Structure formats: structure tokens, C-alpha cells
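Instructor's aside before we start: the two examples that follow are unrelated to each other. I chose them only because their records fit on one page, so don't look for a connection. First example below.
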Amino acid sequence: MSTEIVKSEIKRFLSSNDAEVLCIKGKWGVGKTFAWRQYLSEAESDKKLHFAKYAYVSLFGVNSLDTLRYSIFENTVSNAKLMSGADVSSLTERWESVRGSVRKGMPLLSAAAIKFGGSGAAEVISRAAFLAVRDQYVCLDDLERAGSSLSIRDVLGLASMLKEQRRCKVILLLNEEQLSELDKAELQRQIEKVVDVSLIFDPTPEEAVAIAFARETIVNQKLTSKIVKLGITNIRVIKKIERLAERLAELLAAYRVEILDQGIHAIALGGLSVLQPDNAPPIAFIRRYNSLLSAMREKKDDLPEVDRQWSAFIEDYGWYHCDELDAAVIDGVVMGYFDETAITNGANINQSNLENSKENNEVSKAWRLYHDSFNVDDDEILDALYFGSRSCIANISPLNINGTISLLREFGRHVQADELVNLYIAQAEPNIDRLDEELRMWGSEPVDRALALAFEKLKADFVDTRNPRDILVAMVTNRSWNDADMVLLASQSAEEFENIFESIEGPNLSSVVKFALSLGAHDGPMYKQVGERVTTALQSIAQKSPMRKRRIANLGVAVE
């Protein structure tokens, strides 16, 4: 049902003078309550409300009709407080309005207090208060989440009474799919008798963002196309994504607009994955995805079907790989807050890459001489490649530096080629895995021998200074890891794993230990080595006390 139809019918309902019951159905999170409040606020601003009083009550956990009746009374406010809701002053006003009725009922209160104690008096007061509920709007939300002692039949009966005897306009909001089969059947039996208008709230992605983004900002302008592309209709999810994006925009305010665009691109996809995991690829898949590698695997027909489906989804969205900024943003989505240092580091790298992009750097200009003209001398092209590479050595990918070095060697410029190898390897923080990732996986040209040897030496001399405890915990949290993570864990002795396990406290301990044990079940010598050392570490811990022994035996570890 179009949201325009729903909006039009709600506005008619609010402005008419007829007592009615309006039912709005919709799935969890599509924004029934959000949209209802928005349309109610608009009608109040336009002076289109027939009644001057309104009560909103969520039935979540409400277990009796008496509780519900009193909740309607205490949550009734004047139109001036439609959006802010009930407070002490509004409740005081409500009691002032029924003071006379309570005073007249004092003999009944005294009798009830004598016969039933304080609870009887309280019930009489509650019923007296409910007498004041008339000629107003009453919104009953979350019908499917009512307590087990409050039936759908009771709620619909109360709605009918409010309409017929108190001239109220009653709004029922519910997710029919979450009702039990008995409650569904009861709803169908009673709804024709009680409900005057029944609407289904099922917005399209375009309609959902129009409702969620009532106020236009730069951030939600950028988010709109992303949310529509991903097909998100859950307004709660959209609003959570918006809040994260607003925070990210603050962190990236000093950077180029392309950096914020990238961050918002990652937030929308990561938000869908975290908040609606049944409708999106897993976070671990998003982190490790690389379109080039996926394309190569598809050609070999070794990509699992579920990965093919998520690959198609993710590429249709425009996601091709996860860099440092993307990873920091996705971490923030998972945690609910951003690591400012990680965001800044990723943004700095990408800002630098943009400022030295291939469209503008000297290497690109040199290759354009090679590809775009037959009128340029060979030496001029080779000089341009050599000097251009020197000027932006830190921004050249392994794929491109290999191509440049190989061409220099082909035309006898071995000294210059060797110099570029040394300069490239001498960068402050070279990524030692990128040669394998970019060249050996999908590069079409042979790898220059000197460059390959230099990378191998770099890898051999590399000392991983990361804390293995932190890496293991991150592997558990993210359910993803890389070869460098496994190399680091495989370098740990059984004693070091014992120290790691004893340093972890809190609810994460069990999941970390179980995960570490599970690594031994993977194929490969590093995994087997880790599994054996983890088992030895746990066996050592088990010997420290009978209770430790019992707990570790329960993990399936042989402790004798």
C-alpha cells in the first residue's frame, strides 16, 4: 500500500469528528510508529486535529486491562505536548481534572481499603481516573508484544468501548507476523467488528528515506541513493545509519569530499550487514571482498554459490574492495562508535592517494606518452618513466612499479631499474603482502626478479610487533583474519598461549578459547601448529587446580 494513501487516510482520520478505530499493520522496523508520530505532528502544526487530547501507550509487557486503562489516563497530554509526551506536570493536570470524581468516591475508597486493603483502593482510584478518558486520541502500540495475561480480545474490546462509549479515536499499531496463530485468528475474528479502517504500512526504499529524512542535510542527501540502492525499508535501521554517518561527517570535516563519500558508502553497506544480517553479506565477507580476485575465482568455477550471490549483490552496489578507511568505518558500525585514530589514518592515506592520483602523477603522464603517441622518442618515454617513478614512489602500486621496472630492463636500463627497486623497498611502511596480492594473483606480466627477491627479503626480515592477544581477540570478534595474523599466532609457544588465556578476563574468555581450539581443525601446517600449542597451553592451565581441570575438560580437551 502506498505511503501516500496511508498518509492521506491518517490525516482524514485525525481531522474528522467521527469516533473511529484505525489499525495500521506493518513489519518490525518499517516505521509505523515513526510515520504515525510524523503525520500526527504535521496535523497538529496545520491545526487539523479534531481532539485536543492524546495518549500514546506501548503494550510491551502490559499484563492487565487495569494497567492498560491507567496507562492511557496517565499518558494523556494536551496537543501542546504531543511529541514530548507525558511528564509530572501533565499527570498533575490529569489528576486535577478527576479530583472531583475521586472525592465523590471517597466512601467507596474507604470501603475498598477496609475490605481489600490498599490494592482495592488503588483499583478504585485507577478506575475513577479512567473515567476521564474520553473525547481524545488513544494510540495503542506494540499489540504483538503485550504481556501473556493481556489478550488481543481484551485490547480490541477496550478499543471498541473507547470508541462507542467515550467518543475516542483509537489507533492500533501492530506487526501481525509476530502474533501467535491463536492471536492472529482472534484478530481476524474481531477486527471486522471493531476496526473501521485497516491499513498496511509497507514503504518502498524511496518512501522510507522520505519519511526517515524529514530534515534535509548534506549527509542524508548522500545516504539516500545508497539506502535506495541497497533496498533498505526499515526506518529504525535507516535512522541508526544516519546517526553514524553524521558522526563520521564530523570526523572527516577537514578532508576532501571524496573521503566522506567513501565513508558513507561503507556505512550504508556495513549498517545493513550489522543491523539486518539476513538481508546482506556478512561483515567478514565485506571486509575480505576483492572484485578482481572474485572474478578470477569465478573463471575457475571454484566460488561457492552463496559467495556468488553476495558477490553479485556487493558489486551491484559498487563495492570492490575494503581499504583501511573502509575497515575503520565498518569497525565503527560494528562497535557503534568510531576509533578516531583509525579513521584519521585511513583518511590520511586516501587523501594522499587522491592528491597523487594516477590521473595527475608523473608516472601516469609517462605511460600516456607510451600509449598515446607514435611521435615520442624511446629515451624520452624511458626518462619520463624513471624520473616520474622517483617523484611519486610512495604512491605507485606494485603492479605499476613492476611494469615500469620491467620496461626499463627490456631497454637496457638496469641501473635505473635497480635503483627503483631499492627506492620502492625503502619506503617507510611498505605493505609486504601487496606483491602477492596484486601481481601473483592476477598480474599478467612476470614479476621482475630483483623486485621479487627484495620483497621476499622484506618478508623474511619482517618482525610483527602486534600484540598476539589483541589479534586473537580481533579474529574472534570479526570472524575474519589474514595470513599475517596466522603467521603471528603460529610463532607463539604453548607458554605464550597460556599467558594469553590467563590475561583475558570477562565474558569473552570462553569464546576466545573455543575459537583458538577450532583453528587446529583448519587445513595447513600453521593451523595445526596453533591447535597443538593451544591444547598444550590449556592442559598446562588444567594442572593448576581441580576446578580449572574440570572447566577445560568440558571444552573437550584431554587433561589427564
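Example two begins here.
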Amino acid sequence: MMKKLIYFIVIGTLFLAASSCQDNFIELTPPAQFTDEVYFKVSSDFKAYTASFYGGLPGWDFGTMDNSSDLTANGNGAGFDLGHGTISLGGTSWSYSGIRSYNILLDKAKEYPGNEVDIAQYVGEAYFFRAFAYFNLLKTFGGVPVVTSILDIDSPELYAPRNSRYEVVDQIISDLDAAIGKLPTEQAIGSDDKGRISKWAAEAFKAQVLLYEATWEKYVGQGPDGDGTTAGAGKAGYDAADVDQYLSEVVTLTEDVMTNGGYELWNKNDDPLMDNASHWYLFNLEDAGSNPGGYDKTTNKEYILYQVYDYTYKQSGKNLTWTGYQLYPSRKFVDMAVCKDGLPPEKSSQFQGYHTRGDEFMNRDLRLINYVYGSEEPSTTLTLDYGSLGFSGYGNMKYAVYLPGPEPNGRRTDGTESYDYPIIRLAEVYLMYAEALVELNGGITDEQLNASINKLRDRAAVAHLTNELVNVNGLDLLTEVRRERAVELYKEGKRFDDLKRWGILEESLNASHCGMVVGDASYSTEFKDEQGNATANYLPNSYVWGEETVETPSGELKCVVVDSYQNITVSSKHYLYPIPLSQMILNEDLLQNPGY
């Protein structure tokens, strides 16, 4: 199984992974006998080699959870540089080591003496991971040198200038097309190999790439490209027609995954034991003891691309629950979730305001209730005190297990929590489909909404998004589609990328990060304990940045400030990171991105 891919053998410049388990040990030829001349001769060699690729997928890392974005008010350092506009020239590094490994396999596949069908899946995986690596480089730096062969220490490509972002995108698309043509469907992947890349995962990822690039070109434009002579990677290969072409293909790809992938939303809200908490338990799903309904990972058909973890073979090694609690949501996120009538709180008669802590969570989207700690009943356990648990007034529940151990339904020992890490799930495919349609056509039909976003709203127990709802209430359709994405994918590492590709990074990040409404003489707020008695658990003197009047669904009100706008200086140059100075010293033909 993928979870059993747990050890690596170093062979010269090759990192070869093999599967192993306690009850089925595989006897291998001694490592010293492995050379290029004897390896890559049978299909199992290719399979073993690709196992190491999966370490290149994102996993449990709190630095990738949108910390310091506009939807968070957490105080840890993750995401600080981009979120505050303090990116340093020497603070970012890039690595082509993974790309070299993928190129090695693709090169060796050309010399494979057997039937190429036997290794097609592993060749497809190499193409996929090379595309994945280049997409991460593209999002970080824009254009970078494209390397598709095995380089030696004196290869001229080591000193080549940057390819433009458009040339990098072309390479990514080419690799993903090759991967899609070789990878098996999810249905054809056996239970022992679940977690390996499927055709549908490659299609979903290609849709993600195309949507990112189409909206980047539409809203950000060519400013970050530079002229390619004095700064930046230039504009070679740019074609204005790509935007609509990419959006159209996003629709086609997502429709294919939605129709043929065999995936489904993990919705157990019909089970009374689950207490409408599917959004919570999905993200800490392990064995049958991880939730009151007795569901294990085999019931999860929502994850399309994910990093596999396992309590026996590959634990997270992270304190997921207690650190997860401290990924504090911001005022902006809490106000973003709709009410049960499907309307934003500022438009809904169901919104109860902020007079008493807990009022704002009444009649709201189940995603808000499941993702935010402090959204159930008023309690004295959340003292509104900077530095305490929930110092914004809220704590994060996504990825956290609230119930104390032992199992069933309890939390594992710190560092042993081992739920899978989602990279692309069906919910995101629905969101990409809807967004691409609105961007492409300026609208979306109710039927198309029912096939996508409204499936998410059904699980969230809120009314459908319809064209009538939008028109009657003076809403903007694109804004509502983006709202759905922000709420559904909260803390899944998508927010910074979305703010960049929508061209709203500066306006979104330069505002103060605020927490709970605390009111004043004109709008009193009360904090009550579980018996309904008023408590004095707001400690204003603990907030160094004090309070700030901000726009809320109940008008302009005072909120605690967790991180002041005075600390933030995000500008247009921050859509891309600077090329590391260490790389520019090694290769004088690398030009710095504009503004650095």
C-alpha cells in the first residue's frame, strides 16, 4: 500500500523507494549491487523509484494553511513574509532536485527493454510530478529555467536565462497531457495502491493550473513579467487568446472528473450520530474510532489528490489538534459564511448580530459551525485575552479533534494523529467548474449551479445559490462564487494563490486582522457563561493594537485588533517572490523580478 512506502535506498544519484511491511518483507538485492546498468530493467524497478516522488506532495505543515492571510488572525510566524509584505531577497530558495529525479525516470523509460505498457503508469507519474514541481515554481517566482533532461556539472542549461511564465505553463500543460494519457483511472487502482496518482487527479490538477493561469492573465496581467532584458522573465509565448481557451478547458476537465471519476462528497449528516458535523470529521478521519458514526478512511471518496498518512506506517509527526486550535480565524472569515437562507449575513434577516457572544453563529452555514471553535454555546472557556486560546475570540476547529481521548471518538497522542492531507478534493472541482463558467460566460445557469456549488450548500444545510437569489438581493454572482470557495476551502492552502490570481492581494492583506466584535456604548456586547450569566472576560488591556471600527454585517462596529495594518506593507511586487540571490550569483543570466 502507499502507506507502506516507508524506506529509501540511496544508489549513487538515485533515490529508490521500495514497499515494505512487517508481514510481507521483500528481499532485495544488496544496494551495493545496484547500478544504472542493472536497474530500470523491469517494471518493478520503475514502480519502486516512483515511490519517492510522493514525498514531493504537500503534507502536514502549518505553514501551508493560509496563516497570515486575510481569513486568519493567528499570531504564529507561518506565512508572515507574504502576509505582511516582508519578503527578503535571501529568504526564499528553489530546488530542482525533484525535477532531476523525474527527468531520470523519463530518460530511463526510453531505454526500457520490455513492453512500454508495463511502465506507462510510472512514466505518467513522472510527468505529473514534474508538472507539479514547475507549477509550484511558477506560482512562487513566475518564469524559471525549464529543464527536461538530466544535467551534468558542466551542462550549459545550468547557466541559462529564465523561461517566461508562458513557456513554463506550456511545459506544465504538455507534461500533464502526457500524464493523463498514461495514468490509470481511480477505479483501476487497487486497494493496496490507493493514494497513487490517477488520471482524474491529473485532470483535476490540470484544471487547477489552467484556472490559475487564466485568471492571473485576466486580472494581474503582464506587469510582473518584466521585459526579460533588465528585469523579470519576459513575455515570450504570451497569447491573449489563452484566457478563454484555458477557462473552456477547465470546464471540460472538471465535468469529466465530476461525471466519470466516481468521487462523491463525504456527507454523513443524515446519520444522527454525526450531529451535522461532516465538515469537521472529514478532516480528522482515521479509523472507525475517529468519529461517532464509526466511519474510516475507506468511506472517503471525496479526496482526489492527497498525501497518505497511517497510524502504523506513517504518522503525521505533528501536534495537529493543539496547533490547529491556534490557527485563529479572522473577523472577515466569520462574517463571510452565509445564513441558512443562502444570503450573506449583511443581506439576511436571519442574522442575529453580535450583542451576545454566540448570536452571530445562529442560523449560519454548517461549515462555519464545524470550522470555528467557539461557535457552539457561549462558554467561559474562551476568555477574550490576547495570547490565550482563541485570542481573536475564535479558535480553529478544522484539522483538530476536540473530544478528549481515549478512543472511540477521542484524540490520539500528540504527534501520532494520522489523517490524510487533502490537496485536491471533489469540492474544489465543483468550485473550479462554477468559477470557470462565470469567468468564461459572465454567468452560470441554475442547472450548472445545482451540479456543483449547490451540492456543497446541501452539505452545509443552506439554501441554494440561484440566479434569482442573486438578482433579487442585489448580489454579484462572481463574488458569491468566490465566497463559496473561501468558506469551503478555508485553511487548505488556497487563499494566498486565490488573492494573487484575482489581483486583490494588496487590498485584501493590507487591512488589520481583526477578531470578535466588542461593541461600545452604541452597540453593547455581552459575554455570558453557560448559565446565561454575564461575565467580564474581555481584557482590553491585553491587546496592544486595541480596537478598530470595521464594516460588519451589522454596520460599522468595534472589533479587537490582533494584527494591525501598521505592520503590513504588501505591494504589487509581492505577487511573485524574488529570485534568491544565491541563484543569481551562480547564474548571472537570471534577472530579478520587478520591484526587488
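The longest helix spans residues 120-141.
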